[in-house]
Amino acid sequence: MVTKMSVEQPLWHALTGYRLLAVGYAITIYVWALDRFRHPVPGAVYLAVLTVWTLATLSQVSSARRCTKRFLAVDVTLAVGGILLSVYVDGAGAVNPTIPTIWVAGPVLAFALKGGWRWGAGASVLVGIANILEQGDVTRPTLHNVLLVCVASIGIGYVVEVVRASERTLAQALQIEAATRERERLARDIHDSVLQVLAMVQRRGTALGGEAAELGRMAGEQEVALRTLVSSGLVPAQGTAPAHEQEGPPSAEAARGGSGGRSRILAPVRRRPGRGAGAEDGGNGRTGRAGVTGSGDASGGPECDLRPLLSRHAGAGVTFVEPGAPVLLPEHAARELAAAVSAALDNVRQHAKGPAGGPAHAWISLEDEPDGVLVTVRDDGPGLSEGRLEAAEAEGRLGVALSIRGRMRELGGGAELLSVPGQGTEVELRLPKAAAGRSARS
């Protein structure tokens, strides 16, 4: 949950405090010099009205919404009236400050906070003219006070305008981020369900022939249209092709049209014992090793053991290695991590062939580390050719980008993929426990 905090609001609170202190200061100065005024009674009445007005309008200066134009007009009129009244009350000029003294800066600052530096400059000029009329001449102290109020109001008004523009930009960025995250979530769900079914119908229909082939062709067309719709706004769509045409190596043009994801191709290296591969996802596999770390947190919830969620994938073609103790994670985090593993296994089943030409064998390894959970999915398939992932993302095939990397990014973890052509692919999914803990606490 994001709590909105206005940077402008503390300035209004400061103005409220300033007005209270200023009216107290004006009363103190007036009482201290009471015997030197020529007509003290009108000045005392004015200060009484000023005190009541200040106390009664505290709520008006608590925010820009409450500070109306009518209030500002009355406020600055009261300030100018007090300055001009000082000519009559202090006819001999025995007391230098005007009756409201520093209180007159309050209305000017209110103008600046409400309407920006232009409003503040206008109000300060109006108060400055009143001060010059009260003095009867442009003296150095008067000019100094006028310029001081003018500079302060313009500076604060400009700061307020910058703050408001920054808050609007931040609000728009948060809306875009929320919309993008929701779009990615929907795209993952579509990829894990509808697109997989359409691709299966297309392959089976082509294999059966006859009317089934026509059904498969229609399913392929719908798959391409849906992938284009899902990928629009997420990656630059540069053309699509039916699924059966994308299983082979991509063209050089498609490889150059990648999405610019952070990945690199590893030169062939000696294969580590027991290290196999993850998988290629419908043209969305990752060539090379790419680390993606997100800052999002999984939503909170009760903890559950991750082992049963992964053990259901074990079978003739999948070997699952698990620790002896439960691996506890918040329920949502555990299910999303298991879904990412399922997406990696789908890639193995659909696109990876074993050394003997049959289906590739996959291994799932679950490790409960002190600071996080590591799940490794590897296979003994042929690996990924150079540029395959970039071309797949450009074609709108976002299995790895959304179903694997997107899920891990939102959980606060990361996904790393290692592939060497001819030596299989490996997917490492790492989720820090701190990220899962923060989400559970929230």
From TrEMBL:
The EC number(s) this enzyme carries: 2.7.13.3
Protein name: Oxygen sensor histidine kinase NreB
Biased composition (Gly residues): 275-299
Catalytic activity, as annotated: ATP + protein L-histidine = ADP + protein N-phospho-L-histidine
Co-factor requirement: [4Fe-4S] cluster
Top-rank taxon: Bacteria
Region ranges (Disordered): 238-306
InterPro entries: DUF5931, HATPase_C_sf, HATPase_dom, Sensor_HK_TwoCompSys, Sig_transdc_His_kin-like_C, Sig_transdc_His_kin_sub3_dim/P
Membrane-crossing segments per the record: 12-33, 39-59, 71-89, 109-130, 142-160
Role: Member of the two-component regulatory system NreB/NreC involved in the control of dissimilatory nitrate/nitrite reduction in response to oxygen. NreB functions as a direct oxygen sensor histidine kinase which is autophosphorylated, in the absence of oxygen, probably at the conserved histidine residue, and transfers its phosphate group probably to a conserved aspartate residue of NreC. NreB/NreC activates the expression of the nitrate (narGHJI) and nitrite (nir) reductase operons, as well as the putative nitrate transporter gene narT.
Single GO molecular function: kinase activity
All copies of domain Histidine kinase/HSP90-like ATPase, residue ranges: 335-434
Enzyme class: transferase
Major subcellular location class: cytoplasm
Alphabetical keyword list: 4Fe-4S, Cytoplasm, Iron, Iron-sulfur, Kinase, Membrane, Metal-binding, Transferase, Transmembrane, Transmembrane helix, Two-component regulatory system
Pfam families: DUF5931, HATPase_c, HisKA_3
Domain DUF5931: 2-171
Domain Signal transduction histidine kinase subgroup 3 dimerisation and phosphoacceptor, chain residue ranges per copy: 182-231
Subcellular location field: Cytoplasm
